[in-house]
Structure formats: C-alpha cells, structure tokens
Amino acid sequence: MAKSVRIEKINAEVQKALSHILQQDVHDERVSEHFGSITLVDVTRDLKYAKIMISVYGPEEEQKEFMQGLESAKGFIRSELGRRVRLRAIPELQFKLDNSLAEGTRILSLLNDMKAKGDF
C-alpha cells in the first residue's frame, strides 16, 4: 500500500528534526563522538511508532556504543522532537542500525575482485 503524502511529509519533518537533535542537542559521548546519519524515518499512520534507521560509520564496537547512547537518550530525543514538530501524538522511537551502506561497499569490493581476477 502506498504511503500518503501526509505521512511522507511527516517522515521528512521528523527526519530533519531528529538529525538536528542528534547533531546539536544530544550530549551523550557515545552519540556525540561518533558520526551517525539517519537514512530512513518511517512513521506509522496512527503516529504511535517511528522506525528510525541509522547508519553509523566506524567499527562494529563504535556502532554498538552509538546505538546504546541513542537508547539511553531516547526520552530526551522524543521530548525535543515534540517541541520541534507539531503532531497530535509524538511517536515512540525505535532506532535500528542500518548496515546497507557497509553491505553495499562489501558487495562492490567482491565484484571488483572478481572482475580483476577475470571471473566476471
């Protein structure tokens, strides 16, 4: 089922606000010392939940630390989101690690290796 224009606008607004909050307002060292990027926000139609996909650059241990910092700061992030985005309900935030960039890089490397060996 296609998403409504309204939900798409809410997703974009929430993503913009969350990006600013993570960059400027979260002071947890696990978050502020690492570089993470929001790749997708998917708010449910009833506005109860928002799945936020985060791509974190660095080794797996730093990614885990970043995600732990987000979970720790989730209440603060949600309250800040409520101040910045006008919605009848502020969704419960569900942070998920997005490994698609790393996986894409790995596949590209494998393809390049195969091409260099003449297997492709």
Content of β-strand = 15-25%
- Average of per-residue pLDDT values: 89
Physical arrangement of strands within the biggest beta sheet: 1-2-3
Quickly count the helices: 5
Query: Could you estimate the helical fraction of the residues in percent?
Result: 55-70%
Radius of gyration: 17 Å
Total strands: the figure is 3
Give the CA-based shape. flat
N-to-C series of helices and strands: HHEEHHEH
User: How is the main sheet built?
Assistant: 3 strands, mixed
Return the structural class. alpha+beta
Model regions low in confidence, pLDDT < 50 over at least 5 residues: none
Q: Termini separation (Å)?
A: 38 Å
Give structural notes.
With 120 residues, the chain is an alpha+beta fold. Helix content is 56%, strand content 20%. The chain has helices at 5-25, 29-32, 60-72, 74-84, 100-117; strands at residues 35-43, 49-57, 92-97. It has a three-stranded mixed β-sheet. α1 packs across α4. It is flat and about 60 Å long. The protein starts with a helix and ends with a helix.
